[in-house]
Write a structure and sequence with these properties.
Distance between the termini: 54 Å
Helix content: 10-25%
Strand content: 25-35%
Structural class: alpha+beta
Order of helices and strands: EEEHHEEEEEEEEHEEEHEEEEHE
CATH class of the largest domain: Alpha Beta
Number of helices: 5
Oligomer: single chain
Shape: globular
CATH topology of the largest domain: Fumarylacetoacetate hydrolase, domain 2
Number of strands: 19
Largest sheet: 12 strands, mixed
Length: 302
């Protein structure tokens, strides 16, 4: 099943190329807004699934190109992200719920002296039931589903060493969607092709088999530190070689096999520019580090 919020945060189920409003089916779930409605649906999914399926089958859908998809998890309690691109000690960080945006929304680059702004193509896990000190062998039973996730980064901010919080937790830096795909539809989450385009040019293209630490280990490790609740999001990291600068006017599209396509725009009121090259292309030319900023505020003069 594919669950989405659309238009004025109606809860919908994808049916082919349409989305069916199933809000009435879950109206009795206690909630104050869409953020804890979807958490309630996830927590009670075993009880309400058959009713959702019937409503979707019986209902008349609206073509997906006539609706506006909203973030499918508008305000998760926890957004965790792994960062390692090669085998190394496991690591992660929090992203702020205020970073969440959805399909068609805009990532806004802040007025800060970042050396570069990047967005990492990732698959994110949606937690389905409370996870505390979960063993890796039991971890997949805590997975509700999966969705596309873009991990926005403002890299190189001073002071040196004061990194993840100010780099990762900015408003609009956690795009996700366009919908949640329940776990039963994903045969193997460790064998999904991920592609990210910037203005139609393919920049990232890798498989989740590249993950240095598989999903069960990630859930085990994070849940040993703090409890994960239904509706929390755990992103799985990226292959860093294809990362390239995000800048004003960009259209970014992320498509993961079976998870649909997430589209966002990028806005930078300072109109800063970088060369359109990836980290891998720089490495192949024998160049070290990230693509240097070319123009605009904070650009280093030659």
């Amino acid at each position: 099943m594919k669950l989405a919020f659309f238009d004025d945060f109606k809860l919908g189920v994808l049916k082919g190329e349409t989305v069916v409003d199933v809000s009435q089916v879950v109206r009795d779930i206690p909630h104050t807004g869409p953020h804890n409605l979807i958490n309630g649906v996830i927590e009670r999914f075993a009880d309400c699934r058959s009713r959702l399926e019937k409503a979707a089958a019986d209902g008349k859908g609206v073509p997906v190109d006539q609706v506006r998809f909203r973030p499918p998890l508008p305000r998760p309690h926890n957004i965790e992200d792994g960062t390692r691109s090669e085998p190394a000690p496991i690591n992660a960080f929090h992203k702020s719920p205020s970073g969440v945006i959805g399909d068609g929304d805009t990532m806004v680059l802040p007025d800060v002296p970042a050396t570069i702004f990047e967005g990492e193509a990732e698959v994110a896990v949606v937690i389905g039931k409370r996870a505390q000190n979960v063993r890796a062998a039991d971890a997949m039973s805590h997975v509700f589903g999966y969705l596309n996730f873009i991990d926005g980064s403002a890299r190189g901010l001073p002071p040196s060493g004061n990194t993840f919080y100010q780099m990762k937790s900015r408003d609009t830096f956690a795009p996700m969607g366009p919908y949640i795909v329940t776990a039963d539809e994903i045969k193997d989450p460790h064998n999904l092709q991920i592609r990210l385009w910037v203005n139609g040019t393919l920049m990232q293209n890798f498989n989740t088999s590249d993950m240095a630490h598989k999903i069960p280990r990630c859930i085990e490790w994070v849940s040993s530190i703090h409890t994960l609740e239904p509706g929390d999001v755990l992103a799985s990291g990226t292959n860093h070689r294809g990362l390239s600068p995000f800048q004003d006017g960009d259209l970014v599209e992320l498509e993961t096999e079976c998870l649909g396509r997430l589209r966002i725009k990028v806005r930078d009121d300072l109109k800063r520019t970088w060369a359109r090259v990836t980290r891998l292309e720089r490495q192949q030319k024998g160049q070290e580090g990230q693509t240097p900023q070319l123009t605009g505020k904070y650009a280093k003069q030659p």
